[in-house]
Design goal:
One of its GO terms (biological process) is tetrapyrrole biosynthetic process. One of its GO terms (molecular function) is uroporphyrinogen-III synthase activity. This is Uroporphyrinogen-III synthase. This protein is an alpha/beta fold. The chain folds into two domains: 111 residues, Rossmann fold (3-Layer(aba) Sandwich); 82 residues, Rossmann fold (3-Layer(aba) Sandwich). It is built from seven helices and nine strands. Helix 5 links the parallel strand 7 and strand 8. The longest helix has 14 residues. It is elongated. The protein starts with a strand and ends with a helix.
């Protein structure tokens, strides 16, 4: 239901930056040729998947977070002042910057929302468990269910976090959030929901 697409962006003067702040592995999948010019900057990644994508692209990962990009930034507070280049998608969360941390943002990709495939629509006619990884995905999925006349009351949602669960709205059979914002925790929640038909 979504497709990541590259967008054109300009690479700023690297001497001004102490590192890269990255909130999605899509940065390294769709960031384009400009990434090659940034490879000497250390990466502060939101989580394991993003850190792995950075390493595969030849970057050195200095920080690997576990609870969102805000916690990564907070963890850098108190160290020497840092000016970071944030590589992001077109839709990204605002950050509350601690003292000593400044950020310049470049949008390097966008997520295009696509119509729900007929195979998924047909599979959800009798209900099912759906994983939601972002608030944008939750909103789009809910809109597509309504557009196609799918019964929210038959569908269970497993969300990566409470903000994502809230974005899906109401009327679902059940909505539950993962215990911590990691893909592994979300998959564990989904498996439990499928096994218990809960």
């Amino acid at each position: 239901m979504f497709e990541a697409r590259s967008v054109q962006w300009d690479v700023p003067e690297l001497a001004a930056f102490d590192g890269l702040l990255v909130g999605s592995a899509n940065v390294f999948r769709h960031g384009g040729d400009g990434l090659r010019e940034l490879v000497r900057l250390p990466v502060h990644a939101v989580g394991e998947a993003t850190a792995a994508a950075a390493s595969s692209a030849g970057f050195v990962v200095e920080t690997c977070g576990m609870g969102g990009l805000q916690s990564v930034v907070d963890g850098l507070a108190g160290k020497s002042p840092q000016h970071l280049l944030r590589l992001a998608g077109e839709s990204h969360l605002s950050l509350d910057l601690p003292r000593g941390i400044t950020i310049e943002t470049r949008v390097v990709y966008r997520i295009a929302a696509l119509p729900m495939p007929s195979s998924l629509r047909d599979g959800l006619r009798d209900g099912g468990v759906v994983m939601l990884h972002s608030a944008d995905a939750a909103v789009h999925f809910a809109q597509e269910c309504d557009r196609l006349g799918l019964d929210r009351g038959a569908i269970t949602l497993a969300a990566l976090g409470p903000r994502i669960a809230d974005a899906a709205g109401s009327g679902w059979r059940k909505v539950e959030s993962a215990g911590d914002p990691r893909d592994a925790a979300l998959l564990e929640l989904c498996v439990r929901m499928c096994e218990t038909n809960d």
